[in-house]
Amino acid sequence: MIQILMPIAGSARPFHEMGQKFPKPLIEVLGHPMVEYAIRSSRPAGDHRFIFVTNAADRQEFHLDSVLKLLAPGCTIVQTEKPTGGALCTALLAVDHIDREAPLLVCNGDQWTARGIQPALDDFRARDLDVGIVTFTSMHPRWSFVRTDEDGMVVETAEKNPISNHATVGAYYYRNGGMFVRGAEKSLLKNTLVNNQFFIVPSINQLILEGARVGQHKIPNAEFHPLGIPEDVSHFLDHFQTSPLDQ
Hints:
By secondary structure, the chain is an alpha/beta fold. The chain is built from 9 helices and 13 strands. The protein has a single domain, classed as Alpha-Beta Complex (Spore Coat Polysaccharide Biosynthesis Protein SpsA, Chain A), CATH 3.90.550.10. It is 31% helix and 26% strand. The strands form 3 sheets. Strands 1, 4, 5, 6, 8, 9, 10, 11 and 12 form a 9-stranded mixed beta sheet that branches. A two-stranded antiparallel sheet has the order 2-3. It starts with a strand and ends in an 8-residue tail after the last helix.
């Protein structure tokens, strides 16, 4: 069984400033809630279990938990009462629900990838990687990045700093949940803040320092559709007339 951890407690302020009243996971894009695109993108072929970290207010006011249970039956839902110190801190709120021995995916909750996660998982397992990172081509500093050596192995990661043109799509595979927790805890202890927040990608550097085998799986840019800001949604609507989830 593989675990999929999806922290979705982040702010939707750019959408709210445009008049949207719902939390980001429930914003409809071509008739489907945004989080459904992320769930469908990150759902593997075999046995799996989703773990969501949500805002308590979104559960109480908008019944987000009911939607998540419909989209991912059997999921575990953890809630936070207040803003955290960043995506890494949000993810760690689920630490008591992470099986330290089972494989783990940590995925963003605001994107759509056309072929889903399975091709990347197959690649990571075939290469016997400890950590696998899905990437696309970009140098825009809104993303996180990886740098590779001559053999294609990841030797460094960075947040909001284009150390290469290998940008991450927000999907991270760990051989087991214990590796994620260990890297995250070391990252917090070393105070690896970026813009006063803790992010997922810098924590992978702690595993690289341990000697972990870290690789990337690059997908064509045409297959990656971020939905995290209003401009992303506008681009998505320009690209699709109907939802790809209906095809």
